[in-house]
Structure formats: C-alpha cells, structure tokens
Amino acid sequence: xxxxxxxxxxxxxxxxxxxxxxxxxxxxxxxxxxxxxxxxxxxxxxxxxxxxxxxxxxxxxxxxxxxxxxxxxxxxxxxxxxxxxxxxxxxxxxxxxxxxxxxxxxxxxxxxxxxxxxxxxxxxxxxxxxxxxxxxxxxxxxxxxxxxxxxxxxxxxxxxxxxxxxxxxxxxxxxxxxxxxxxxxxxxxxxxxx
Length: 194
Hints:
The protein has helices at residues 50-59, 70-76, 113-124, 134-142, and strands spanning 4-11, 15-17, 35-38, 45-48, 63-69, 88-92, 107-110, 128-132, 148-154, 162-163, 179-182, 187-192. The chain has 194 residues and is of the alpha/beta class. It has a single domain (4-192), classed as 3-Layer(aba) Sandwich (Dihydrofolate Reductase, subunit A).
C-alpha cells in the first residue's frame, strides 16, 4: 500500500492562497526554470529548476489518486476533466455538481475525508494518494490519515489568506527529519510522520 501525502505550495507564513484564493508568487517556481516536466496533463508543461524536476519526477509518478476539496475543484473547473497528477481525483463535497461538462472524467465525489481516503486506497492499489487543500489537510491530519507531508515552501509572506493546516485540531505530532531539495524560488520539504 502506498502513502497518503498531504501536499501544497505554502508561503513562509503558512498560507496556500491569498484571501481571494489567488496563488500569486507561490507558483512562480513552476515556470522559472529550464527543465520541462509534466503531471498527468501532457498539454500543461511546467518549467522548473533541475532540482525541482528531479524531485517532481521522483514523486509525481507514484501518485495514483488525488483528493481535493470542492473549493479547489470549482476554482480550477476540475482542470477540465484531466487530473493534475495521478489517474483519478476524488472531490470531497456535500453537493456534487450536477452540470459539470466533463461527466466521463476520472472524478468521483465523497462526502467526508474518511470516505475519500477509503475510496482512494481502493483505487490507488500500491500507489500513493495526494491530498491537496488546507481544510482537507487539517481534517486528514486530525483523523490520523496522513503518512507524509510534502511542504513546498515558497519564499514569500502573504500576510493573510487560506492556511495549509487551518483545521488541524489533533495532538502535537512529531515528524521525521525532512528530505530537503532546494529549487529555484522553492524549497521542497518532504516529511514522514512519526
């Protein structure tokens, strides 16, 4: 069985987006390097540093299922039916869309993070599961469902916005020492939970 990895690009002060859901300079590193890398969508290249490319090419191919929240689904229009990474996306929501124009896309819906992780484990086989989103990350950590954290630290202070761990209400947790990869305008910190 693969790992459940909570993943996000995060500002130095802990935000994954500004108050208007904009990512601004958080995502600059996806387009500031000479090496082309791809997630699932072959029409959406990223251009990153060699160090970031090595890190992404080591981690992304292992992801089989992504779990996202309804907010990210709506903001991206579900990436027009193509998962950003992996083969399948599970959207946590109490109200699945009824008029989404990509009904045959590999997207399913769940009403809780627990249900989503159960579905994802079934679909992922021995592959990894990625959880993206501040509220979902906090819920998954609180429920003890996360094995690893991929914290992609961008050198920016947003001052306000949506926090990565906003809804975590569990006990104090120790993490193992991180794998550290220094990219251009990002530091990849990859932790296992103890």
